[in-house]
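BUG-301 | component: ligand-complex export | severity: low

The export step for zinc ion jobs runs without errors, but we want the raw record kept on the ticket for reference. Input record follows.
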Amino acid sequence: MLPASLAAQTRTIPEWCKPLPRPEYKALMRVPVSDPWFEVYKVAPGTFAIYEPHQAEEVISYLILGTKQAVIFDTGMGISSISRVTRQLTAKPVVVLNSHTHNDHVGGNSEFMFVYGMDTDFTRKNALGSRADAQAEIAPDEICGNLPPGFNRKMYVTKKWKISRFVHDGFKINLGARTVEIIATPGHTPDSIGLIDRANGLLFTGDTYYPAPIWLYRPETDMDAYVASVTRLAALAPQVQMVLGAHNIPVADPGVLPKLADAIVAVRAGKGEVKAEGTGKAIHAFQGFKFLLAEPAKGLD
Ligand SMILES: [Zn+2]
């Protein structure tokens, strides 16, 4: 029998936290950084996944280095300082691009001088910051292990940030001997983007694809747009070697993208298994993919 104190501790470990660390990370090259809130992995030359395993989103931001400057594709939860981590990885200027502006991807935006934004009302509204979504992220069953020392629960909000420049589909950033290009992928949100590094065969997909249930239930989600965006990404699959999503596990095979496109089309045609999840939502599972949709599902035939 466990001592009472240990039993209590065991009970408080959230379900999602139990299978961590995920075995896929064993094959990746870990890069030591000073802040235990983050885990950093070098996933390709000059390309770092910055993972936050102690919070249920398991969000992953990416630092992409050129010879002149760097892009950080998302800035995570804002629970600990991501700019302190990027400064340990590069001395070059770092500009922010967000895969979209849900709170779990923009938490560190305010720590950076230059933040690019898509020219949408959704982006402008989120750039004002907010409290409710941030507070929900630190409920006891959302945290695995310890919050950073000195973290102030009551003060935790998504901080507002200034959009330095509006960007658009096809916008290219020259990082010095390396170029990344925006692929607009509206659907999950109106301002969702992917980022492609064509020369190195890398495609960063944000929340349009990651290897876990894909959230498509919020009012800002547009299912028709999502299907069109996934179809666009699927067409890029033959040109890329690695797909890098924004949650759970950073590296996937590009072959997943055409399968994802088929899966969401099948689910919208009423195929697959449906299981209620929380209030007004359901998980639709089809051939290894899972989608969390509003119930009754929007746009189902
Ligand atoms: Zn999102």
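Assignee comment: Attached the raw record above. The chain has one domain: 12-270.
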